[in-house]
Amino acid sequence: MNPVIEKINAAVKSAAEKCAAAAAAADIEAVRIEFLGRNGLFPALSREMGSIPAEQRRETGAAFNAGRQQIQQLIDEGVARFAKGGDESAIDTSLPGRRRPVGRKHPVMEIADECVAIFSRMGFVPVSGPEMEDIYHNFDALNTPADHPSRDEQDTFYFPDGRILRSQTSPVQIRVMETHEPPVRIVAPGRVFRRDTPDATHGMNFHQIEGLYIDRDVSMADLKSVLLTFAREMYGEKINIRLRPHFFPFTEPSVEYDFSCVVCGGKGCNVCKNSGYIEIAGAGMVDPAVLKNVGYDPEKWSGFAFGLGIERLAMLRYRIPDLRYLYENDVRFLEQF
Ligand code: PHE
């Protein structure tokens, strides 16, 4: 056995002992540097090869390769041992921490909360109702005739047991009046569902905020002032509103409620399709038939109701051209709010 082979054998033994005794990843790294590092033992041995007699070179070279491999394996095992944890010195406490991205409120929720805050300041109490409704609360109690198209399976999602996903937040009006004596002043934000084909301004589920005000001698003027106050709180003092005659089964008279265009101020632009106004909601005086359905005396009590589309308000606030952006959950989009 020549002196180089002796050194190789001694090195493997020493490396094995050192790896076994290692207490931290740094001890393993020290073994690597001592034996396999650029200025370590093995590169030095390889330079000694030249002095080995020719007939021993083959044997010595084989021992060299085998020894280097064994030490590399010891190092690999040592690295893996400490990488598995259990040794605190394997954690580099000097590294900067990793910043986790922080979530934020979705723009639709942002606007919903803002609406609730505005109406709360006018004395409306926030309430909620179920998203899975029955036909009675969503249609019958709201004075909707049996042949009304909105009841159709083409428009409303039915469960096999005959219940539905509510197509509007108006059933919350009924649930509140059934359980509370007048006067009543509530807002009910929430999710609604319709079988629409999704496009830039329609989705299969979206959000509404319902308002209901029942008291003695409530008039259309009260409705108009509440809606005007809301419009100006939401989009600024320059906003005007417009009420257009419309029809809803549960209000009489009924109106559609428009804002003067928040983009052009009423002059006409592509957002308001040159009309100067943007449709926001439906509203009206609660139909006496609805009051009777919940046991209120229409001779004594009157009131108004309204329903706003929250996505519509968010699109106007943030100038979002397509409703679908709100639901694709693309972080690049959501990060902007
Ligand atoms: N529920 C109606 C809709 O979804 C809106 C509305 C609410 C109209 C309250 C009048 C009163 O279209």
CATH architecture of the largest domain: 2-Layer Sandwich
Which structural class matches the secondary elements? alpha+beta
Count of beta strands: 9
Summed up, the domain count is 2
- The shape, in one word, is rod-shaped
What distance lies between the first and last C-alpha atoms, to the nearest angstrom? 76 Å
According to CATH, the homologous superfamily of the largest domain is Bira Bifunctional Protein, Domain 2
- The residue ranges in which pLDDT falls below 50 over 5 or more consecutive positions are none
State the CATH class of the largest domain: Alpha Beta
User: Might you state the CATH topology name of the largest domain?
Assistant: BirA Bifunctional Protein, domain 2
Order of helices and strands: HHHHHEEHEHEEHEEEHEHH
Biggest sheet record: 7 strands, mixed
Mean pLDDT across the residues is 91
What count of helical segments does DSSP give?
11
Q: Name the hetero compounds present.
A: phenylalanine
Give the strand content: 15-25%
Strand order of the largest sheet: 1-4-5-9-8-7-6
